[in-house]
User: Which sequence fits this backbone?
């Protein structure tokens, strides 16, 4: 069982308990355990293997939860979860896909109206029975009717790239209005999470009516779901929902802080406010009725004795303590990036020539690149064997004389084969400037085999970096089962870099493991894995992932000058 699998089952248990009306402290304990597990770099099964007592040393995991975790690891479920699933029909859980319906409200619908499916819920709403329940208004009932037919699409998360494109297009359009003075995206999109479940947009505008009219007419908007005096909810053509909130100028900073989240970060910030006799909400920071701060986020954090926390760090992973001690990292920025060490050309499955890729990189301000076409195992990508690769490198040498102002490294994206050997001979690899080793095939092999492959690659004297280490595809494919502590220790021992692949479909390493690699002293490279000139433009997503990991420019190898970077290579 992987950490995320265990966390998902505990989260499901919490949902079912809340639907059943269980003790709130018990539910919070499960949610807290989920957050702890999702933040771990060590495999939880390994921790449990040392004894259940080791699990209780983790934050938020007591003896009862430790036993549940051991049960999940051993059997893939728990007796408690099986019993809850028998008591709560699967159709009840489907109701959680509807906007505005959390476990508590779904529990009321189940227990008081006895609805057990979306069809039954639709019938109850059409008959007006939903709005008769305590805590359910007519608006809630209407929202259910408006959204229930599309419920199968709800709950789906889109990539950060898709979310940001939509958010930026909408915000740019709304900024054109004369009545608008500020428009910004908040929520998980602002925090640059890998995926987003919805969009939060905040605005300051003299005419809320005008800005909401403009949003409803936007080409990306499929339907208006709700509209009030200062709030509007729409569904976009990609299925994502977006909330627009028009707030007073004096509350904009507090609203940005509140709606950016994360929930866990905000809980700690509000607790800090309460300890100082203050109240913090989306309208501002107050002492009684007196407003203390709210116009800017900086004002809000400063009034609480904190430095401004970059949105990417707001996950309650120690950033508040760092802000209090004035020790927040100076996060890496796009302007720090000088090189890109993973890209493809027409020699394998790329769309542009060596010269075209070099010129495109130079046009984007880079001073060095590595051309890393596929090795032969990637046959569907027209991968290169030893002979073709040597010829390809000669072509790179010719291009070096055709373009100035950018250095071009002779590289290869070399597959780590299922038998733990490399796809290109050592004799040829010895002539490379840059070798990035990857696993493309056999990702479902047992951990022992995966680790043998990765460790053999790390020990090879010509391998410079491990590319997209887990091999995952966001929202589509789980990564390989890696023992990350052992993996990172080996990389640190042998001087091998780790990649954050900036492609939004990969973002691999993830933020948790990128931070763990940094803590081992492993240099990180942020690469685009571009297969076209336009593919170079995904670099900001990789930088955002590095920022979520708390990385500074000094932690990222390709922020160095070309000569400095080359000196870092184990083969230098």
Assistant:
């Amino acid at each position: 069982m992987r950490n995320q699998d265990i966390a998902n089952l505990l989260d499901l248990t919490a949902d079912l308990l809340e639907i059943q009306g269980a003790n709130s402290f018990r539910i919070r304990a499960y949610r807290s355990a989920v957050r702890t597990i999702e933040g771990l770099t060590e495999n939880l099964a390994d921790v449990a293997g040392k004894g259940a007592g080791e699990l209780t040393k983790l934050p938020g995991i007591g003896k009862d939860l430790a036993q549940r975790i051991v049960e999940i690891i051993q059997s893939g479920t728990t007796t408690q979860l099986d019993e809850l699933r028998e008591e709560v029909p699967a159709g009840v859980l489907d109701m959680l896909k509807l906007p505005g319906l959390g476990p508590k409200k779904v529990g009321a619908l189940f227990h008081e109206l006895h609805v057990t499916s979306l069809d039954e819920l639709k019938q109850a709403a059409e008959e007006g029975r939903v709005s008769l329940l305590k805590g359910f208004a007519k608006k809630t009932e209407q929202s259910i009717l408006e959204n229930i037919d599309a419920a199968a699409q709800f709950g789906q998360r889109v990539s950060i790239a898709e979310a940001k494109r939509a958010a930026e297009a909408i915000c740019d359009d709304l900024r054109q209005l004369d009545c608008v003075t500020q428009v910004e995206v908040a929520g998980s999109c602002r925090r640059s999470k890998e995926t987003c479940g919805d969009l939060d947009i905040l605005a300051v505008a003299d005419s809320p009516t005008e800005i909401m009219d403009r949003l409803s007419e936007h080409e990306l908007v499929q339907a208006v779901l709700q509209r009030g005096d200062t709030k509007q909810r729409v569904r976009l053509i990609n299925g994502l929902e977006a909330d627009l909130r028009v707030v007073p100028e004096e509350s904009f900073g507090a609203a940005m802080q509140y709606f950016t989240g994360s929930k866990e970060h905000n809980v700690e910030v509000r607790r800090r406010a309460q300890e100082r006799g203050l109240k913090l909400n989306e309208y501002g920071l107050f002492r009684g009725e007196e407003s203390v701060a709210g116009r800017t986020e900086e004002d809000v954090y400063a009034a609480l004795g904190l430095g401004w926390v970059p949105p990417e760090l707001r996950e309650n992973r120690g950033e508040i303590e760092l802000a209090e001690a004035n020790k927040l990292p100076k996060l890496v920025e796009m302007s720090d990036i000088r090189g890109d060490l993973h890209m493809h050309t027409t020699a394998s499955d790329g769309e542009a020539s060596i010269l075209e890729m070099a010129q495109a990189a130079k046009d984007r301000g880079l001073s060095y690149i590595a051309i890393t076409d596929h090795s032969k195992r990637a046959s569907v990508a027209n991968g290169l064997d030893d002979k073709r690769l040597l010829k390809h490198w000669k072509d790179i040498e010719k291009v070096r004389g055709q373009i100035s102002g950018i250095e071009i490294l002779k590289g290869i994206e070399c597959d780590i084969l299922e038998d733990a050997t490399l796809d290109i001979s050592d004799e040829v690899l010895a002539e490379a400037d840059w070798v990035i080793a990857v696993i493309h095939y056999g990702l479902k092999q047992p951990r022992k085999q995966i680790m043998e492959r990765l460790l053999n690659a790390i020990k090879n004297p010509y391998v410079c970096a491990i590319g997209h280490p887990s091999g995952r595809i966001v929202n589509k494919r789980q990564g390989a089962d890696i023992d990350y502590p052992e993996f990172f220790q080996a990389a640190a021992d042998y001087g091998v870099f780790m990649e954050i692949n900036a492609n939004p479909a990969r973002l691999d390493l993830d933020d948790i493991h990128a931070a763990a690699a940094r803590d081992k002293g492993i240099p990180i490279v942020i690469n685009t894995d571009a297969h076209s000139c336009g593919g170079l433009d995904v670099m900001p997503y990789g930088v955002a992932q590095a920022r979520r990991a708390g990385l500074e420019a000094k932690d990222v190898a390709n922020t160095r000058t070309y000569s400095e970077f080359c000196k870092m290579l184990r083969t230098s």
Notes: Residues 251-324 form a domain with the Beta Polymerase; domain 3 fold (CATH 3.30.210.10). The first strand starts at residue 158 and ends at 159. The chain has four domains: 3-150, 158-246, 251-324, 334-568. The two ends are 41 Å apart (CA to CA).
